[in-house]
Amino acid sequence: GAGVSQSPSNKVTEKGKDVELRCDPISGHTALYWYRQRLGQGLEFLIYFQGNSAPDKSGLPSDRFSAERTGESVSTLTIQRTQQEDSAVYLCAGDPPGGTTGELFFGEGSRLTVL
Amino acid sequence: SQQGEEDPQALSIQEGENATMNCSYKTSINNLQWYRQNSGRGLVHLILIRSNEREKHSGRLRVTLDTSKKSSSLLITASRAADTASYFCATDAGYSTLTFGKGTMLLVSP
C-alpha cells in the first residue's frame, strides 16, 4: 500500500479482555516499530523488528504485551488481560532500508480504550 | 526518562507570527528529527539534522542544532492556522530506535 495502515482505528474493550492490533507496513520497509502514546504524552517505544533479526523487545511494559511479525510483512501487537492504564494510541512506524535510522513513516494509530 | 524534552509545552500565537520550539537531550546523537502530529494520530516527519550540521532549512521551517549544549530549535516562520499541531523532537543515539520528547502543542489563531 501507499502508506502504513493500522487497524482497528478505534477499539473499546473491557478490562481483562485481550486485544490484537494490526500494522501493515509500507512494502520494502524492513524495519517496523511499535510506540505507545498516552493522552498528552510523548511516544514510548515498545518493540522494534528488523528483517529476520531477533526483535528488540526492551520497551514492552509487561509480559501481557507481545508482538509478532513474519518476515517483512504484517505485524500484530497483542495485549492480554487489558488494564485501564493500557488505554492509549498505539502507533506503528516503518523505516526505509539503508542502514542508519532516518525518517520514520507512521500509521494513523489504533486508539485503545479500556473500560 | 525522555531523551528529548521540548519547551514550551504549549505555545499560542497569531497567524503571521513566528513560532520557536526548543528541544534538549541528554546523550550524544547521530541525528535529531522533528515530527508533527495532528489531533493525536499519526506523526509526519518534518526535517532531519545530522550531528555534524548546525542549521537546516525546509520551506518555512528552520532547524538549528547545538551539540555542545545538546539542544535544537525549530522555527516556523509566517505561521498559518494550518500549522496548529503538536511538534515532537526525536533523537537517534545509534540504538535501534528513535527517542521522542513529550512535544510542544502549537496553536495558531487566525
Short characterization:
The complex is a heterodimer of chains A (about 120) and B (about 110). By secondary structure, chain A is mostly beta strands. Helices cover about 0% and strands about 45% of the residues of chain A.
Description of the structure:
The complex is a heterodimer of chains A (115) and B (110). Chain A has 115 residues and is mainly beta. Helix content of chain A is 0%, strand content 46%. Chain A has no helices and 10 strands. Chain A has strands at residues 5-7, 10-13, 19-24, 31-37, 43-50, 65-69, 75-79, 88-95, 105-106, 110-114. In chain A, the strands form 2 sheets. In chain A, strands 2, 4, 5, 8, 9 and 10 form a 6-stranded mixed β-sheet that branches. Chain A has a 4-stranded antiparallel β-sheet with strand order 1-3-7-6, with no helix packed on it. Chain A is globular and about 40 Å long. Chain A starts with a strand and ends with a strand. The model of chain A has no long low-confidence stretch (mean pLDDT 90). Chain B has no helices and 11 strands. In chain B, strands 2, 4, 5, 9, 10 and 11 form a 6-stranded mixed β-sheet that branches. In chain B, strands 1-3-8-7-6 form a 5-stranded antiparallel β-sheet, with no helix packed on it. The termini of chain B are far apart. The interface between A and B is medium-sized, with 27 and 24 residues.
